[in-house]
Design brief:
By secondary structure, this protein is of the alpha+beta class.
Length: 86
């Protein structure tokens, strides 16, 4: 459990591990939701809803290809050189 101090302006500094777990940083908004669990009031903090639906979308382009850094860099350079010709 972590205790947080509330300032005179009702501001709180969130601990780094909490911000990392919620995927939030300066300027981000948190959603605060009030719930009743076993007769007790609790508050739930929600960070960004990350959209992971795109993960794996490029899988078909990577299948059967080398993932070594040098090979990836060569592929990028080939693509750039082709783009310069058009």
């Amino acid at each position: 459990m972590v205790a947080m101090l509330i300032t005179a302006n009702r501001e709180v500094t969130l601990p780094v591990p909490l911000c990392e777990e919620l995927s939030v940083g300066p300027g981000d908004a948190l959603i605060v939701e009030r719930r009743r669990v076993d007769g007790e009031t609790i508050w739930v903090l929600r960070g960004k809803n990350l959209d992971w639906s795109w993960v794996g979308a490029a899988h078909r382009y990577a299948t059967g290809r080398s993932h070594k850094v040098i090979d990836v860099k060569r592929s990028i350079e080939r693509g750039r050189s082709r783009g310069a010709r058009t």
